[in-house]
């Protein structure tokens, strides 16, 4: 059995995993704390336009927040590998929420330079909850079977953030005003961060001391190609959102712009549930490539330009495989990254997907006047991802087993996770 084999432990039930100590708290807290990722863009646009600003400026602020948050992820991940989670994420959560709370005081009709600076700084200091959670799972769930279940649940539920978040922000802005939407966004981010960061595993987590915390060469050729391939997957997601908006405009059915991504995200969540229910054969690399093939095949029927009802039914098919791709991507990172820099490596994966998504959105927007090309862009992104990952297969070679970078408690007490009494 190779080090990448995922058939290392019997399957676990959702009840047993969620009933394990700290799991529900960490998973739920992270989802609450990351809900602002889906709320901030909508809240900013509605806040700016309600204050007399232009839609273009609101869109610019939303893009700036997302870009700053994504680009700063690796830096925050490396700092966490050096100094632990609470010393980095607590100040980040407090400052991020403070910036969002300050925006209504500054005013949407205030100086654009000040508003832009506050939004940009808020994006830079978003707490790195996702990468931090990934680093915690090996200590919370040492059993590989249970860890595989919770990682699939974690990845699959992320898509729902971008369904619930915009809907919640829109409802709050419509019923209680845009200022209230920003205040609620800040409160949710701070609350979710507090739930995670006050938990025992997060407070006591330290990276391995092997080679020195936060040291060691990170970027092997295998990791670089993995991140490039997953950027192609992200490109597909960005292009899909624009394609959905274009179909809504062409068909004169505005609800399609939200319904199509929602169905895709629901498929991703369901795919994660199915994947986690059993142990699948093959190595992590084999599963990564197989699910990438299925992801591409799922987009091909949409090239025929189906009607709205057919598109709604078909778009959930590629969504079924997104969670599997991302989950196996994280598993591959776990095998290839230096033991002392895994959080930073997780952050680079998150950045790769986010950068690809931004590129897909930008290119699809530029080509929105060509409906046939626009409809082909999601499949093109999936094909690019598959091509890169196939070429990278020899470099995604055997590495340490999942979670091996967390040593037993009696090996290095200073870097172990002790459960508070």
Structure overview:
- This protein is mainly alpha-helical.
- It has 2 domains: 9-142 and 159-206, Growth Hormone, Chain: A (Up-down Bundle), CATH 1.20.1250.20; 214-402, Growth Hormone, Chain: A (Up-down Bundle), CATH 1.20.1250.
- The chain is 73% helix and 0% strand.
- The protein is built from 18 helices and no strands.
- The protein has helices at 14-18, 23-34, 36-50, 55-71, 73-83, 86-106, 112-124, 129-140, 144-176, 178-197, 200-204, 221-251, 256-276, 284-299, 308-314, 316-336, 342-366, 371-392.
- Helix 13 (256-276) runs parallel beside helix 15 (308-314) and helix 13 crosses helix 16.
Give the termini distance in whole angstroms. 38 Å
Please tally the β strands and state the result. Answer: 0
Can you tell me the number of structural domains?
A: 2
CATH superfamily of the largest domain: MFS general substrate transporter like domains
What is the beta-strand fraction? under 5%
Gyration radius from CA atoms, angstroms: 21 Å
Poorly predicted runs are 1-10, 211-215, 399-421
Largest sheet: none
CATH C-level category of the largest domain = Mainly Alpha
Element pattern in H and E? HHHHHHHHHHHHHHHHHH
**Portion in helices:** over 70%
Overall geometry: globular
Please state the average pLDDT score.
81
Helical segment tally? 18
Task: Please state the structural category.
Answer: mainly alpha
Query: What is the CATH-assigned architecture of the largest domain?
Result: Up-down Bundle
CATH structural fold name of the largest domain: Growth Hormone, Chain: A
């Amino acid at each position: 059995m190779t080090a990448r084999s995922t058939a290392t432990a019997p399957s676990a039930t959702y009840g047993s995993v969620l009933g394990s100590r700290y799991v529900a708290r960490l998973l739920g807290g992270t989802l609450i704390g990351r809900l602002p990722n889906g709320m901030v863009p909508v809240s900013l646009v509605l806040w700016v336009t309600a204050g007399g600003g232009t839609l273009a400026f609101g869109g610019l602020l939303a893009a700036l927040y997302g870009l700053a948050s994504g680009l700063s992820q690796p830096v925050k991940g490396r700092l966490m590998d050096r100094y632990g989670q609470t010393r980095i994420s607590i100040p980040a959560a407090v400052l991020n929420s403070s910036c969002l709370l300050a925006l209504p005081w500054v005013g949407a009709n205030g100086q654009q330079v000040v508003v832009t600076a506050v939004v940009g700084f808020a994006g830079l200091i978003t707490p790195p909850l996702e990468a931090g959670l990934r680093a915690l799972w090996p200590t919370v769930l040492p059993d590989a079977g249970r860890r595989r279940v919770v990682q699939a649940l974690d990845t699959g539920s992320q898509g729902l953030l971008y369904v619930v978040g915009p809907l919640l922000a829109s409802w709050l802005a419509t019923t209680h005003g845009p200022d209230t939407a920003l205040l609620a966004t800040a409160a949710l981010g701070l609350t979710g961060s507090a739930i995670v960061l006050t938990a025992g595993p997060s407070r006591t987590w330290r990276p391995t001391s092997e080679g020195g915390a936060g040291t060691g060469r990170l970027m092997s050729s295998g990791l670089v190609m993995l991140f490039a391939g997953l950027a192609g997957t992200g490109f597909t997601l960005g292009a899909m959102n624009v394609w959905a908006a274009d179909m809504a405009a062409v068909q004169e059915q505005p609800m399609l712009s939200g319904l199509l991504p929602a169905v895709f995200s629901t498929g991703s969540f369901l795919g994660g549930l199915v994947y986690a229910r059993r142990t699948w054969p093959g190595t992590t690399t084999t599963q990564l490539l197989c699910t990438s093939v299925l992801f591409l095949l799922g987009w091909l029927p949409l090239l025929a330009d189906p009607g709205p009802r057919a598109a709604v039914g078909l778009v959930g098919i590629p969504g079924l495989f997104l969670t599997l791709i991302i989950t196996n991507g994280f598993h591959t990172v776990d095998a290839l990254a230096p033991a002392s820099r895994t959080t930073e490596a997780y952050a680079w994966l998150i950045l790769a997907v986010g950068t690809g998504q931004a590129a897909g959105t930008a290119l699809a927007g530029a080509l929105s006047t060509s409906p046939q090309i626009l409809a082909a862009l999601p499949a093109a992104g999936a094909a690019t991802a598959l091509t890169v990952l196939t070429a990278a297969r020899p470099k995604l070679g055997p590495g340490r087993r999942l979670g091996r970078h967390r040593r037993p408690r009696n090996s290095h007490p200073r870097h172990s996770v002790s459960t508070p009494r």
